[in-house]
Amino acid sequence: xxxxxxxxSLRPWREDDAPDxxxxxxxxxxxxxxDWPPHRNVAESRTVIxxxxxxxxxxxxxxxxxxxxxxxxxxxxxxxxxxxxxTDEAExxxxxxxxxxxxxxxPEALRALVxxxxxxxxxxxxxxxxxxxxxxxxxxxxxxxxxxxxxxxEASGRTIRxxxxxxxDFRTSRNDRLTLRRADERDIDLLHTxxxxxxxxxxxxLLSPEQLVYMLERMYAPETLRRELHAGFAWFIAEADGTPxxxxxxxxxxxxxxxxxxxxxxxxxxxxxxGAFLFRxxxxxIRDLCPGHGTMELNVNRRNRALGFYQRxxxxxxxxxxxxxxxxxxxxxxxxxxxx
Length: 340
Ligand SMILES: CC(C)(COP(=O)(O)OP(=O)(O)OC[C@H]1O[C@@H](n2cnc3c(N)ncnc32)[C@H](O)[C@@H]1OP(=O)(O)O)[C@@H](O)C(=O)NCCC(=O)NCCS
Known about the structure:
By secondary structure, this protein is an alpha+beta fold. It has helices at 18-25, 28-34, 42-51, 105-120, 135-143, 167-172, 188-203, 209-220, 222-230, 274-289, 306-312; strands spanning 3-4, 8-12, 58-63, 69-76, 89-96, 125-131, 147-153, 159-166, 178-182, 234-240, 243-254, 257-265, 295-301, 316-326, 329-339. The chain contains eleven helices and 15 strands. The protein has an eight-stranded mixed β-sheet, sandwiched between helices. A seven-stranded mixed β-sheet has the order 9-10-11-12-13-15-14, with helices on both faces. Helix 7 (188-203) packs antiparallel against helix 8. The termini are far apart. The site of coenzyme A has 19 residues, from helix 7, strand 12, helix 10 and helix 11.
């Protein structure tokens, strides 16, 4: 695997990097910060490359400009790190040679590694540990979105500062990562794919498998979606960094009455603010169409956890009912309302 940034490539170490490694790692200031002794000769650097830097997800930080290895960055898994890691977690480690300090190279490398960890390896959390006096490293972590968790004292007397970055925060913490667009007929297949994942995950435990398939096909069949789009239902798709992550649809039922038909977030994006983002945009859309006063209603299965979400969004329970949907199936719903 090789990762590339504007100024760097991150690639596996090779034994012929040993002289470059020695040039950086023989300076005691580097090892001091990372807690290893300075390398004494090129042969020792070669051994480190062979025995330590050969671990998976360990990269030489190579300058495009010179082709030289100037630092190291990687992901520690299992019990290889300082922290006790879960299987979907890793600890990041990095250093760069002294002549290259202060040029923003490690933040650039770390951003690429973080993208890779979440997007390709699908990790849930990254951790980072540094000595408390290492302000430079803390800045790197802050720049890349890591948040302080705690400090721990080591037997040696030094104090370790621990920070973490969750996939969820990474995906959506910055609002500019989330965008919304109005769906049209070209999105029918995409909506079906999103629903296949989000709808199925939602109702797997609430409905029988037969009813689930029946409802999915009834609500998301291409002809149904096409008909709704033509009838003026407004469908919106949320994207996080360009990746579709959820959708919402709204129907105008009367001059001042709207129905929020659907709001679904892909499971791995849930709890990250995407639902609130979709909900607020749907309400803004409706209120633009209907200034003054109006009502938005929706149906929610009485056993669906989304009920708590709707209450958090300011909706209240108006009534309940069991609604036949064909084939002997019912939707056992609360009707929620929001008025303005
Ligand atoms: C319901 C759903 C749309 C919410 O979206 P989400 O992205 O998970 O929610 P958010 O992260 O935006 O949460 C927004 C707020 O609601 C709160 N919230 C979310 N789910 C909640 C729940 N089940 N109970 C109580 N509060 C909840 C969050 O804590 C957050 O509060 P905060 O603003 O104080 O931090 C999403 O979880 C989902 O797609 N669920 C499955 C599909 C579904 O049930 N759709 C509704 C069909 S009727």
